[in-house]
């Protein structure tokens, strides 16, 4: 009735907790009546009771001996570390390790692997849990006193839900997951996958998950049951991040089989379900939208003279900066690993709301604008600070920068990079990443109409300031007819007058935007509109002068021209000189402007009189 393993160690009289054995299994289906009767006989029952008594006593003595060895090993390990010796000096002798392994396997064989893991949890995890809890509660009380001292007599109170578990999880990781932690050293020796010594492997043991992780989660449930409610969203998110960080650190120390089994643990699933992440997400969504709506209302506050910093860039409109700040907050401060789809949906909603705010701002500004804002009397002539070309070019520059933040291929692409970095593990090169990219592209497409409305509104003002200058073309015939004027050698003054709004707008748009390609496109569209008006006026002038010249010739009775330069020739020469000067001036603004189709049509309109 004695076990050699037990005889190897001195007996102990300490009273230790004991886990009872499971009941014997029922008879298999289809067993004979004789076997069933034999199983119910008094003799058989007495024999089974004797076996169970022996097994229980055997198991209890195994548990007592194992607990004594593990406790002694922990004590010697701590003494070695206090004496500043290496972990090698703290390791128990191999004979004791073999004894622990044999006893653990024996207990596992009779279905008591939980008792082995409970012993390691009591010896190693429980003291750390108590120490970490005490440190966390002390910090929480100090934070509560500080918060109360900073409020007035009726100030807000810090409840249990505001306990930050950062200290608790950090101390647990420091004491149990470090390279000097004894439990991790034992777990690596006894693990079946990749064990350094096959003689020590105990395949049924899961020391990291069952002796550390599950007791820790159970401790949190018992001591801080309110941490799962997002009454204080910032603390809720921080605690969730601390929990996930603790789990990631634990899984990194597990063998693959233990890690896979841990992820299927009902206790872990129950712990994760307790976090009210859906409520938290709703609170964050409401908060984010309120921030953006409040910033959108400030668009009505007049000129945007000061820039607002957000992320790595500056923005003219506060709503643009607030959008970037909020998106950054969503993916950095508010993000939880289980909420990736909802955080992505919130980001798209924020971008759509921003696009609507920009369109409303453009429409309101256009309808309330009095005049074009072009000040021709200023020195030099310029666009007023409150004019639409100034205000809307700045808004357009903001939208362009936001689009760049959404572009994963751009050098900035800040928001796109945040979305990709937060993809759940294993999805960085998957369909999920392609879907995320498609959603960002869709959000960018949704902002394009807002940018188009901005561009049309501001360019309309610039073109409107240029077009009246071309009315002076109609005065060219009166300047040359019957006055014996010399042949023209320079462009008419209206060409310079027409160029001034365009050049001033180039300066305004260039200083507002960091996207020269977009500015070049705006200038080209302005030139296109101005050239269309120039072409119309030039065509009408040529038609009217030809009709007048034909009438004068009929009245004078002449069929041919004279040898010297006629007034009509001078008119044509002046018009061609004006067209050439205008085309040269606008072409100097850039290759995009020089390629405007309207310039080619303008040149074609006067080609017949050159």
Question: Can you walk me through this structure?
Answer:
- It is a single chain.
- The chain has helices at residues 4-7, 33-39, 42-82, 87-90, 94-109, 113-149, 166-176, 182-190, 207-223, 233-253, 256-263, 266-274, 277-297, 318-332, 340-368, 388-406, 414-421, 431-466, 476-480, 493-512, 516-556, 567-587, 591-594, 597-605, and strands spanning 308-310, 313-315, 374-375, 382-383.
- The chain is mostly helical and 610 residues long.
- The strands form 2 sheets. Strands 1-2 form a two-stranded antiparallel sheet.
- Strand 1 (308-310) and strand 2 (313-315) form a beta hairpin.
- The longest helix is centred in the first third of the chain and has 41 residues, at 42-82.
- The N and C termini lie far apart (125 Å).
Strand arrangement in the largest pleated sheet? 1-2
Q: DSSP strand (E) fraction?
A: under 5%
Average pLDDT: 85
Number of helices: 24
Low-confidence stretches: 1-19, 152-161
The helix/strand order is HHHHHHHHHHHHHEEHHEEHHHHHHHHH
Helix content: 55-70%
Task: Specify the overall morphology.
Answer: rod-shaped
The major pleated sheet works out as: 2 strands, antiparallel
Which value, in Å, is the CA radius of gyration?
42 Å
Structural class computed from helices and strand pairing: mainly alpha
């Amino acid at each position: 009735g004695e076990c050699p393993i037990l005889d190897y160690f001195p007996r102990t009289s300490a009273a230790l907790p004991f886990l009872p054995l499971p009941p014997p299994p029922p008879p298999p289906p289809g067993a004979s009546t004789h076997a069933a009767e034999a199983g119910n006989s008094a003799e058989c029952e007495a024999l089974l009771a004797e076996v169970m008594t022996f097994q229980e006593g055997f198991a209890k003595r195994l548990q007592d001996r194992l607990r004594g060895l593990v406790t002694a090993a922990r004590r010697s390990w701590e003494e070695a570390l206090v004496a500043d010796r290496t972990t090698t000096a703290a390791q128990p002798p191999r004979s004791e390790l073999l004894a622990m392994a044999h006893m653990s396997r024996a207990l596992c064989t009779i279905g008591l692997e939980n008792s082995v893991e409970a012993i390691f949890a009591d010896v190693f995890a429980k003291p750390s849990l108590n120490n970490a809890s005490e440190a966390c509660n002390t910090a929480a009380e100090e934070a509560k006193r500080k918060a109360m001292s900073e409020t007035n007599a009726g100030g807000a109170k810090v409840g249990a839900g505001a306990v930050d578990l950062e200290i608790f999880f950090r101390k647990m990781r420091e004491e149990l997951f470090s390279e000097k932690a004894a439990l991790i050293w034992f777990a690596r020796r006894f693990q079946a996958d990749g064990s350094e010594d096959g003689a020590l492997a105990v395949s049924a043991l899961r020391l990291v998950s069952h002796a550390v992780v599950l007791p820790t989660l159970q401790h949190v449930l018992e001591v801080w049951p309110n941490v799962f409610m997002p009454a204080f969203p910032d603390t809720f998110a921080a605690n969730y991040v601390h929990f996930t960080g603790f789990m990631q650190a634990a899984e990194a120390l597990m063998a693959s089989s233990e890690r896979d089994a841990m992820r299927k643990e009902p206790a872990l699933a129950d712990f994760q379900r307790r976090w009210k992440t859906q409520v938290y997400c709703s609170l964050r969504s409401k908060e984010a939208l309120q921030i953006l709506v409040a910033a959108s209302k400030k668009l009505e506050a007049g000129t945007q003279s000061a820039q607002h910093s957000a992320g790595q860039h500056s923005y003219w409109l506060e709503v643009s900066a607030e959008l970037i700040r909020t998106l950054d907050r969503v993916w950095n401060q508010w993000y939880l690993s289980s909420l990736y789809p909802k955080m992505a949906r919130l980001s798209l909603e924020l971008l759509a709301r921003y696009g609507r705010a920009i369109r409303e701002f453009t429409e309101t500004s256009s309808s309330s604008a009095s005049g074009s804002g072009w000040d021709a009397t200023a020195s030099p002539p310029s666009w007023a600070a409150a004019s639409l070309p100034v205000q809307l070019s700045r808004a357009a520059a903001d939208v362009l920068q936001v689009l760049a933040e959404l572009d994963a291929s751009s050098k900035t692409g800040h928001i796109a990079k945040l979305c990709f970095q937060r993809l759940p593990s294993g999805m960085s090169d998957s369909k999920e990443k392609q879907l995320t990219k498609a959603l960002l592209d869709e959000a960018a497409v949704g902002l394009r109409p807002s940018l188009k409305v901005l561009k049309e509104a501001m360019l309309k003002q610039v073109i409107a300031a240029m077009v009246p200058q071309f009315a002076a073309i109609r005065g060219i015939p009166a300047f040359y007819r019957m006055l014996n004027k010399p042949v023209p050698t320079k462009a008419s003054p209206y060409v310079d007058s027409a160029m001034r709004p365009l050049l001033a707008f180039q300066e305004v748009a260039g200083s507002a935007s960091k996207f020269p390609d977009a500015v070049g496109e705006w200038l080209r569209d302005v030139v296109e509109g101005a050239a269309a008006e120039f072409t119309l006026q030039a065509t009408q002038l040529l038609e009217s002068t030809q009709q007048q010249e034909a009438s004068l010739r009929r009245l004078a009775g002449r069929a041919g021209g004279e040898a010297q330069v006629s007034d009509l020739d001078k008119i044509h020469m002046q018009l061609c000189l004006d067209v050439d000067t205008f085309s040269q001036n606008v072409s100097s603004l850039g290759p995009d402007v020089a390629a405007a189709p309207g310039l080619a049509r303008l040149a074609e309109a006067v080609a017949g009189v050159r």
